[in-house]
Amino acid sequence: ASGGILRPVSGTFVGPDAIRFFRKKQADLFFMTVTGLDQSNGLTDPNPLEIEVKRAMIQAAKQTVLLIDESKFGVSSLCPVVPLRRIDGLVTDCPNALDRIPELRSLALEFV
């Protein structure tokens, strides 16, 4: 465990201890999900504490892969996570992801 405050709803650790933990680590890949992805607001989540941990994990990783199902396309949540350009790969079941979020076309993403 990374330490920090456990959020039972999501099963994640948040807070300064969790952020500090990930800032001291290195990883080749970070697989991440978000609550929403839309053209106007990009990647969004409702919880600012979880977002700070995700940002620390993105900084620690050489590559970040977004795992997102079709139900999250076109959804915008409370807070932005990171710009889409920070994502290196995309795993989705959305058959028309490039049509729904045209900005994805301009990124050098690997699609699965």
Can I get a quick summary?
This protein is an alpha/beta fold. The protein has one domain.
Provide the helix percentage. 10-25%
Query: Residue ranges: pLDDT <50 for 5 or more in a row?
Result: none
The average pLDDT is 92
Assembly level: single chain
Label the overall shape.
globular
Q: H/E series, N to C? A: EEHEEEHEEEHE
Calculate the terminal CA-CA distance, rounded to whole Å: 29 Å
Q: Structural class, from helix and strand content?
A: alpha/beta
Biggest sheet layout: 4 strands, parallel
User: How many runs of DSSP E, i.e. beta strands?
Assistant: 9
Overall structural domain count: 1
The strand line-up of the biggest sheet is 3-6-8-9
Strand content: 25-35%
List the helices and strands and how they pair.
Blueprint lengths: L4 E3 L4 E3 L1 H8 L3 E6 L3 E3 L3 E4 L2 H13 E8 L10 E2 L8 E4 L4 H4 L9 E2 L1
Parallel strand pairs: 3-6, 6-8, 8-9
Antiparallel strand pairs: 1-2, 4-5, 5-7
Helix pairs in contact: 1-2
Your description of this structure?
This protein is α/β, with parallel strands linked by helices and 112 residues long. The protein has one domain. Helix content is 22%, strand content 31%. The strands form three sheets. The protein has a four-stranded parallel beta sheet. A three-stranded antiparallel beta sheet has the order 4-5-7. α1 packs parallel to α2.
Feature tags:
112 residues, alpha/beta, four-stranded parallel sheet, three-stranded antiparallel sheet, 3 helices, 9 strands, 31% strand
